[in-house]
TrEMBL record:
Residue ranges annotated for the GAF domain, each copy included: 102-200
Protein name: GAF domain-containing protein
Organism: Frondihabitans cladoniiphilus
InterPro entries according to UniProt: GAF, GAF-like_dom_sf
Pfam families according to UniProt: GAF
Length: 421
């Protein structure tokens, strides 16, 4: 972004307290796309691209109409009175369904965040719905990160929804509201809901197949089972777990147990699990009682998720947010890994086994970045809670910047500040 662009667009100024990285790179790149389209940050331009007489028919025929019950079951039951609204849109960024807290809906209509309006990035600039479609992955946009000034009182999280066969983008799922809309649990919650929506689309197609063979029935069961394996622990004190139909929060202890069993997929003896949870191999009676309570809690959600014993293990692997970070690192997708790494695993837990895997994941992220990440990815990580005091990351970024780069000054200032601590 050139200096003249920033000076003519005050909303693109680097926020206070961010001397090194300035705006998140992913946000800065979206702002740059908005500038290239000559969008005005002082003027909001969403148009009602689907007028009322066209909207009803378009929604009725849209593939995402079939999965509205999934969204309402997983997200909308608890939204009324929360100040949050849930939106579903198509692949062109047009809002098709906007539901949730009634007062928030009325307030959002003042900025034309309403059914039928177009919220593509190309028309309104940086926002979670439009930018998620451009990037083809989930994103959170906090108030000041919006390109348009009139949207900066709102925050939002959005994820794209894909055709389960072709992987073509069908649309997006969004939560909009105050700061709770970008809380650490919101993106994993929407990602789990998106997986459930895509699984339901696949099941609907298989059920519509004329040949109701045993193979088709088995495939339906496999798809339903695949939607049952999600757990989110990054940046959260308690885990979110989903069976593909519902999403629930576990207790702190049950979160530790499920995280450890997911991480140690080969299984753990009672001695091993006792040590990892309590730091005491002799705590087996306490462990057994807790496992009974955990199985009871999971039976109410989905019995297929309940751990097995001798050794303690999960019946099938979970799709975890920490596992996705590791998979991205293994592929060399460092920028995506940093975006997906939303915080340490169960940060408040003092269980020895959790502390061990928390540090293991942190070191995997850090070592991959130091090995061959670009300077932009390093600076993105340096702007996170874990990376802001990491001298090694800052030094690596300094070494990779060009000698005359204006960003060197900010890094040096950050290093000097750390020296004074």
């Amino acid at each position: 972004m050139v200096a003249s662009e920033t000076s003519s667009n005050p909303w693109l100024a680097i926020p206070p307290g961010r001397p090194v990285a300035g705006p998140r790179r992913i946000v800065a790149e979206s702002w740059e796309r908005s500038l290239r389209r000559s969008l005005d940050p002082e003027r909001l331009l969403p148009e009602f691209e689907l007028p009322d007489d066209d909207l009803a028919g378009y929604r009725r025929d849209h593939p995402l109409a079939a999965v509205l019950p999934v969204v309402r079951r997983l997200l909308l039951n608890d939204v009324e009175g929360s100040g949050l609204i849930v939106a579903i849109g198509d692949d062109e960024g047009r809002l098709l369904w906007v539901e949730g807290d009634a007062q928030a809906k009325r307030s959002a209509e003042d900025m034309r965040f309403a059914e039928g309006a177009g919220w593509a990035e190309s028309r309104v600039g940086t926002s979670a719905p439009g930018t998620a479609l451009v990037l083809d992955h989930g994103i959170q946009i906090r108030g000041h990160e919006h390109f348009n000034r009139m949207v900066q009182n709102w925050s939002c999280t959005a994820v794209p929804i894909h055709d389960p066969v072709t992987r073509r983008i069908l649309g997006f799922l969004d939560i909009t509201g105050d700061d709770r809309a970008v809380g650490p649990h919101t993106l994993p919650l929407l990602e789990a809901t998106a997986m459930a929506m895509e699984a339901e689309l696949m099941v609907s197609r298989l059920r519509a197949t004329p040949a109701r063979s045993s193979t088709a029935r088995k495939r339906i069961a496999q798809v339903q089972s695949a939607a049952a394996a999600t757990i989110s622990t990054l940046g959260r004190d308690v885990a979110l777990i989903s069976d593909g139909r519902r999403i629930v929060s576990l207790s702190a202890r049950h979160s530790e147990l499920m995280t450890l069993l997911d991480w140690h997929s080969g299984g753990l003896s009672a001695d091993e699990l006792s040590h990892l949870v309590y730091g005491d191999t002799g705590a087996q009676l306490t462990l057994r009682a807790e496992m009974v309570r955990l199985r009871h809690a999971l039976d109410a959600l989905d019995p297929r998720l309940a751990p097995l014993s001798r050794p303690y293990r999960l019946p099938s692997p979970l799709d975890s947010d920490s596992g996705r970070v590791l998979a991205l690192l293994d592929r060399g997708a460092h920028r995506q890994a940093v975006d997906a790494y939303t915080g340490p695993i169960l940060p408040s837990s003092t269980a020895p086994g959790i502390e061990e895997i928390r540090e293991s994941l942190r070191m995997r992220v850090r070592e991959a970045l130091l090995t061959d990440a670009s300077v932009d990815v390093l600076l993105d990580y340096a702007g996170s809670a874990e990376g802001e005091t990491d001298r090694g990351i800052l030094m690596a970024a300094l070494q990779r910047l060009a000698p005359r780069s204006p960003r060197r000054t900010g890094i040096v200032a950050r290093l000097e500040y750390l020296d004074r601590l």
